[in-house]
Amino acid sequence: MGRFDGRVAIVTGAAQGIGAAIARRLADEGAQVGVIDLTAERAQGTADEIVKAGGAAIAVGADVSKTADVQAAVAAVAGEFGHVDILVNNAGITRDNLLFKMTDEDWDTVVTVNLRSAFLMSRECQKHFVAQKYGKIVSLSSRSARGNRGQANYAASKAGIMGLTSTLAIELGPFGVNVNAVAPGYIATAMTDATAKRVGFAPEDFQKASAEATPVRRVGTPEDIAAVVAFLAADESSFVSGQTIHVNGGADR
After folding, report:
1. I want to staple 19 with a disulfide (CB 3.0 to 4.6 A). Which of 27, 90, 103, 116 is the partner?
2. Residue 125 pLDDT more than 80?
3. What per-residue confidence (pLDDT) applies to 252?
4. Left (φ > 0), alpha (ψ -120 to 50) or beta: where does 13 sit?
5. Helix, strand or coil for residue 191?
6. Among candidates 110, 109, 170, 169, which has minimal Cα distance to 139?
7. Closest CA to 125 of 175, 96, 84, 181
8. Is 154 known to be catalytic?
9. pLDDT at 166 over 70
């Protein structure tokens, strides 16, 4: 029997990387999963993996920074599986640049995708959670929320996730809803590979340097993050709320 038997989860940005790992982990432990990405075609691969492994999932296309798309996506998952119990706000992008080079569009796009989407998805899902007096929201922040050169937009959006998490925990706690965040350190994904290339490193060299600077002497994997998200989405963490859990191998920065 899995921890999420009978539960329905939504994971945004679940076509690849951390989002895909989270969707697979929740499904492996019994959840029915709404796999959301910008298009249903992008999300289909993760959904197919889950179904092939014996789980239940549907692929849903949505721009989660847009209210109408969010409403339609949540309705699609609830319509397919009957209800919604868990929301994982994972969708995120980078548009890195130093402040004097950063455009209005760079700023607006990153804050909109990374932070506004979490607000919209949480607002829509809480309708289900409050009505049933049960729900779990886990959002992805980042170690970059503490500040990172060339990432003023990304850092601000991820710091915003922390504030949103703390506030929603206060507002929704009386209705049986736990709200937490996970702040990954260096995780080996396509996004961090792109960051390495931006600063002039081969991804493998960047990973090696990051591992050497990390107390546990390795970089993280999407599965490391999925394991912590699964804990926060499970009933065993019912007295944990309003927290941001840093998963970074012991690194200070």
Report:
1. 90
2. yes
3. 73
4. left
5. helix
6. 169
7. 84
8. yes
9. yes
Amino acid occupying residue 94: T
Catalytic residue among 107, 154, 186, 206: 154
Calculate the dihedral angle through the C-alpha atoms of 205, 150, 246, 180, rounding to the nearest 10 degrees: -140
Instruction: Tell me the backbone φ, ψ of residue 53, rounded to 5 degrees.
Output: -80, 0
Rounded CA-CA distance 233/187 in Å is 20
pLDDT of residue 253: 60
Which structure tokens are listed for 175?
């209705």
Q: Decide the pairing of beta strands 56-61 and 8-12.
A: unpaired
Give the pair of three-digit tokens for residue 204. 């493998």
- The CATH architecture one would assign to domain 8-185+225-247 is 3-Layer(aba) Sandwich (3.40)
Determine the average pLDDT of the residues in 60-69.
98
Residue type, 215: P
What is this structure's pTM? 0.95
- The residue extents of the domains of the chain are 8-185+225-247, 186-219
CB 48 within 8 A of CB 20: no
